[in-house]
Amino acid sequence: IVVLDRFMKQRISEKGIADEKLAVIPPWSHNDAVSYDPEGRDAFRAAHGLAEKYVVMYSGNHSPCHSLDTLLAAALKLKNRSDIAFCFVGGGSEYDKVTEFAPKHKLENILCLPYQPLAELGQSLSAADLHVVVMGNGFTGIVHPCKIYNILEIGAPVLYVGPPESHIVDVLAQLEDADLACNLKHGDVAEVVQYILAGAEKTDRPRSSSAVKLAAGFARAALLPKLVELIECEAAGEFSGAVVSDTKPQWLS
Predict the structure, then answer these.
(1) Which of 7, 50, 72, 197 could form a Cys-Cys staple with 45, CB 3.0–4.6 A?
(2) 3-state helix, strand, coil in the chain (%, to 5)
(3) What is the pLDDT of residue 20?
């Protein structure tokens, strides 16, 4: 049984499944198609009126599992900061709620865009100055916000809003540049606002080399062979428990 992180493994174990039947292998990134694109960044920002702004981006599914209320509340608090833009990219059952929030509150700092083609995903992700990853309370071990892997490949700062015990916290804890990641809880609107304001004040925003280095461990080239080996071991009747650690990827068979 393949699970995506240690929290999923714990959840399955608590159902009575023996650990030796479980393998932890996270989904790999789209690093074959997604990488930092400085020219694409400039083009995307120019096309959407973001050229001179500090861009806070949420890119991915808009679903009940990933409440965006805290981020939307932060956008409302920062409505008078014309230099800060909130860009929501994606779709889902909660997409209408996000698109209706700006006109409802007469906001001009929110931009909503549909899912981007994979060939253009590097451009849109590169356009952000701060990426936001969200996971709903109570969903640890149920959902796995794999968007973090493409974001690491881009090397942008990350704001995580969600339960403190999660795979995202495990991943971000490995960054050598500790100031390039922030973990906050749902409802911490004031803290989210302060983190965004602090980021907007920085004129020099270098790409994080430690994030790119960390992303390599979640690349297709790193993880696909692990999955293939797992299947081959199982087919040969040799599987006796396999783990790709969240913190130090390794293969144990």
Answers:
(1) 50
(2) 40, 15, 40
(3) 87
